[in-house]
Amino acid sequence: MIEMTANKPELYRDLARQLSALIAGEPDPIANAANTAAVIYQGLPNLNWAGFYFRNGAELVLGPFQGKPACVRIPIGKGVCGTAAATGATVLVPDVHDFPGHIACDPDSRSELVVPLIEDGSVLGVLDLDSPLPGRFDELDREGCEQLVAVLLVHQRKHPRGKLSSNFDDRARDRR
Ligand code: SME
Q1: Could you identify the atom of ligand 1 that is nearest to the CA of residue 51?
Q2: Contact 102/18 with Cβ under 8 angstroms?
Q3: Which fold would CATH assign to domain 9-162?
Q4: Domain ranges of the chain
């Protein structure tokens, strides 16, 4: 595990470069979301979960992630992920024990950062990072993770057939 560097912005710039290189030329949104989760989980210290939930109607449904198996469906508005999806704003929770309605997929999780994925004003889903350390995330993590989400979204916008969608319908249609 990399030690948290003194220069967090530089670490996030490096992760953004890695991510851009990994997804370059690849339209598939699930593959690219999976590699995004892996870049984050492998690149940031002190995480016990990193991954995506995608919106499907009034729910978030589990997407590609790294870490222990997690809750599959989260109602929009519930928990930290559902709150980020409902408000369209990043939610940083220093101690999940102090967040009413927090959904404890893993009792080891103590702090959480959730960044919404927003396209044309609508929430496609969220990126969720969990840590076993209270207070693991700060404003630099918020900025860095919002930047990583932007790298993924800008890339997917260039690949309309590989648009990040709320379910697998587009992929199923492509196979027919
Ligand atoms: N703790 C989250 C649920 C998702 S898991 O942490 C992977 C929440 O309250 O939304």
Answers
A1: 7
A2: no
A3: Beta-Lactamase (3.30.450)
A4: 9-162
